[in-house]
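Regression test case RT-17, inverse folding.

Input:
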């Protein structure tokens, strides 16, 4: 695999002592998990219908991307 020199330099700075290979492995694993989740959710919606806005908001709260609504 080859990457532009500037990209490699930035990766080395970001990776620190754990190394570029470990950083790239972690990023690839995360990407694959996201892809698998997206595929699962698309298949779920195909079978059960689209998620409602309330379900999407609840999922965002659960994932920590949003605060629960205040009453």
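Golden output:
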């Amino acid at each position: 695999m080859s990457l532009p020199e500037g990209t490699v330099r930035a990766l080395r700075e970001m990776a620190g002592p754990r190394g570029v290979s470990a950083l790239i492995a972690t990023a690839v694993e995360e990407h694959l998990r996201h892809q698998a989740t997206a595929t699962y959710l698309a298949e779920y919606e195909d079978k059960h219908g689209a998620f409602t806005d309330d379900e999407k908001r609840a999922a965002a709260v659960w994932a920590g991307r949003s605060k629960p609504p205040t009453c």
